[in-house]
Write a structure and sequence with these properties.
Blueprint: E1 26-30, H1 35-51, E2 56-61, E3 75-80, H2 88-97, E4 104-107, E5 122-124, H3 134-141, H4 156-165, E6 172-176, H5 188-200, E7 207-210, H6 216-228, E8 233-234, H7 241-248, E9 253-257, H8 260-267, E10 272-276, H9 281-284, E11 291-295, H10 310-324
Helix pairs in contact: 1-3, 1-8, 4-7, 5-6, 5-10, 7-8
Keywords: Glycosyltransferase, Transferase
GO molecular function: ADP-heptose-lipopolysaccharide heptosyltransferase activity
Protein name: Glycosyltransferase family 9 protein
Length: about 325
């Protein structure tokens, strides 16, 4: 069994709990389709793991988010839910979970699935957008205060791969120049300029690491930054999500657009600076012990990313680095 990395949050050893009627409790956790929302939901799972150290968990999520949970402790089953016509994915999930007597069903998607399953306890997050951090919304649905921070799980094999890709002895600055929508993408030239300014401000021996997902769109967004930084380590499309988390945990700083990678970096414990324009920072700012967000000037929900200056991003990045002791205050 792999030893799980828990840099994204504390995980205290819980006291033993009794089995229910001589069996291990089973918990069904229905969570997000997208990587970022899935990462945010890991704080709830972290809480449930503490409260139920003998339970077996089944996690249902979108296919692209599956890697967020692959190395989770006590995971019995991972159910992928590709979207189908006429909400067919919900009927399929019901068929895959109907035969189990669940001790808890937690549905963060607000579906009615939980009402049609045998369950001792149900928690269902109401659908629709609401003001405030998504993290706090999930915690409120579970009556948790303060909200438990997200966590990134990865194995010892993932940690070893990260050490091989990013050896000790060099400070690494992770850059995440991609996003799932072009409106959320900071201009590549701004990323390049910011990296050079960080070097000039004290991280003289820092090396850039470019993080991006698989596929031609991600590669195209990352290419201008890679071309302008010839000494960059290119991790575009090369990593599983647990491997990416292990690599992100080794960075001295991660700067990225509002994306799943930004949330994964924060959960992995990297000092994380999120860059925001038209996307709602009040809902999706990175959540972690060492995080910050900087927002482009302009109307909320309409601010253009190219209005976000390098100077504003640099000031926020330097504040994070000073808090970490990487640069003298």
């Amino acid at each position: 069994m792999f030893k799980i990395g828990l840099q994204g949050g504390s995980y205290a050893s819980p006291s033993p709990s009794a089995r229910i009627n001589g069996r291990r409790p089973r918990i069904l956790f229905i969570t997000a389709t997208r990587i970022g929302d899935a990462v945010i939901s890991t704080g709830i799972l972290k809480h449930l793991l503490r409260q139920n150290p003998r339970a077996l968990f089944t996690v249902a999520c979108g296919p692209v988010a599956a890697g967020v949970f692959q190395a989770m402790p006590q995971l019995e089953r991972l159910i992928l839910m590709p979207k189908q016509k006429m909400d067919g994915h919900w009927f399929k999930l019901w068929g895959q979970t109907l035969g189990t007597r669940w001790d808890q069903v937690i549905d963060l998607r607000g579906s009615g699935t939980a009402f049609f399953l045998l369950a001792r306890q149900r928690r269902i997050l109401k659908g629709g957008r609401r003001p405030g951090l998504r993290l706090a919304q999930l915690a409120q649905s579970m009556d948790l205060s303060p909200p438990p921070l997200p966590i990134a799980w990865y194995s010892e094999a993932d940690r070893a791969r990260a050490r091989a890709l990013l050896p000790d002895g060099t400070p690494y600055i992770g850059l995440g120049p991609t996003a799932n929508w072009s409106g959320k993408v900071w201009p590549p030239a701004q990323f390049v300029t910011l990296f050079h300014r960080l070097r000039a401000e004290g991280l003289t021996d820092a090396r850039p690491v470019i993080f991006a997902g698989p596929g031609p769109t991600e590669a195209a967004l990352a290419k201008p930054v890679l071309d302008a930084l010839p000494d960059a380590i290119d991790l575009t499309g090369r990593l599983t999500l647990p491997e990416a988390a292990a690599c992100l945990a080794r960075t001295a700083l991660f700067v990225g657009n509002d994306s799943g990678l930004m949330h994964l970096a924060a959960a992995a414990g990297a000092p994380t600076l999120g860059l925001f324009g038209p996307s709602p920072v009040d809902e999706y700012a990175p959540s972690g012990r060492r995080t910050a967000a900087v927002v482009a000037p302009g109307p909320a929900g309409k601010a253009p990313m190219d209005a976000l200056t390098v100077e504003a991003a640099l000031a926020a990045a330097m504040a994070l680095l000073k808090d970490e002791g990487r640069i003298a205050a």
